[in-house]
Amino acid sequence: MRELFELTIWDARTREEKGWLLQPLLQSLPATFVFLGIRSCALGDAGHEIAFFRYQDGAEFALLPGGHITLGYDRTTPFVPSAVQQESWKDTMTEIPISLEDCLDLDLSPLRQVRIAPFLIEAHAPLRADLLADLPEETPDQTKIEQVCQGGFRLPSTDEWEYACSGGTRALFRWGNETPPTRCYYVQGWNLHRQPNAFGLLMNDDTYRSEICEGGILRGGDGGVNVHGGFGNFYSWIPLATSFFYSLQSSGEFDIWLEEEHWRRVYPLNGYL
Q: What global pTM score does this model have?
């Protein structure tokens, strides 16, 4: 099934061909997954046809094709802000003396080429406090993670998370490069950040909310720092950028309280393809 190992090859197939290509996988996946069909998913200028499944606990999963994927911020071709975004950055520089270029260089993950295998990923990332409620307070974090991921699941790697969040685009945000001329959460009549991406996944739609990845790394959001910092309108949107990587999230200084974080399970397809 080489089509599932390269997103571009998968995209080139008709829906009927995709259905036939999935048959071996459908026959080998555990009965705990029910095939829901192939859906057309789109946001901004990007779109894909994605296979969806329902797990026995009711959660929906999307099957993401893999490939040789480019992730991170390409500093050799810097983001070009619109006139409105440039004007907004003047407000930012009155509070913190940093250029937009330097800010993106600090806050976005580095450009890299990665090889990602196909995987199933949860379409939504809920809180899992109910699964952890009966565990003793002194339960190690790894045991809590195993509790959530029982049944063959695991947490996404940070590369898998970023790839899934992008919806296969290279724009700053999964919907494109545009933002409205007001702060995130105070905008009216504009909701692209609340829409599922081109993989059909709802991801990084709330700057207050982060998700746990392998190694205890948090991705998405900054806890609302940029929104409430008085740093300007455009600055408040940057935590919703696909490759945003809040420095404290990867430094060990960012407190992780597992009961209050969101979890997005991944089901690896090793041995099924």
A: 0.94
Bridge partner list, 116: 67
Tokens representing 57 are 């606990």
CB 74 within 8 A of CB 19: no
Residue 8 vs residues 48, 67, 125: alpha-carbon distances, Å: 10, 8, 26
3 state SS of 34: strand
Specify the DSSP class assigned to residue 5.
Answer: G
Pick the closest to residue 126 from 267, 268, 265, 239 (CA basis).
265
Summarised one tens digit per residue, pLDDT across range 33-77 is 999 999 999 999 999 999 999 999 999 999 999 999 999 999 998
Which is nearest to 264 in space by CA: 30, 27, 55, 40? 55
For 146, 223, 242, 251, the CA distances from 141, given in Å and listed in that order, are 9, 21, 27, 18
- Tell me, what amino acid is at 83? A
Q: What is the DSSP string of 113-129?
A: EEEE--EEEESS--B-H
Please give the single-letter amino acid code of residue 225: V
- What is the spatial distance between Cα 263 and Cα 62, in angstroms, rounded to a whole number? 15
Give the three-class secondary structure for 24: helix
Torsion of CA 132, 133, 135, 137, to 10 degrees: 110
In angstroms, the Cα distances linking 193 to 45, 106, 163, 180, 209 are 14, 22, 17, 11, 13
